[in-house]
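Exercise: predict the fold of this chain.
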Amino acid sequence: MTTANKKLRLDFARRLIEAMAFAGLDDSPTTLARHFNLHSHGMVITMHGARRWLVGDSIPTQSHLNALASLLGVSSAWLLLGQGPMLEEQVQDPQAQASTNGNLAEILGIFQSLKDSERQLIWNLMMMLTRAHRQSA
């Protein structure tokens, strides 16, 4: 196993943990497996498989990666490789992006200061709004 492969897996694990925190989930294998299995429409992972992703022992298959990114509300390219924006629908205009980055930092700070139950509530609301927006577009 090459050092580059190990780094790729460890970087993926770090981004997965970050995405889980953003989604209001703790970074335990039990939480990840439960959340994935409840919301992935027929795809299933074991707690052991979730642990292997979280510690950087393995990377999910493409189909599992896409489902995982969708569940956590992040870009699959960002989750796997750290490429592009973390969120799928970020503003692309550079001036608007600069303004938005300051707001996002403030929002993320507030979000991270909330209790787990409050973060989950906010996350659920954002996911409902995102789905409604996609359906109306």
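Check your answer against the key: The chain has a mean pLDDT of 84.
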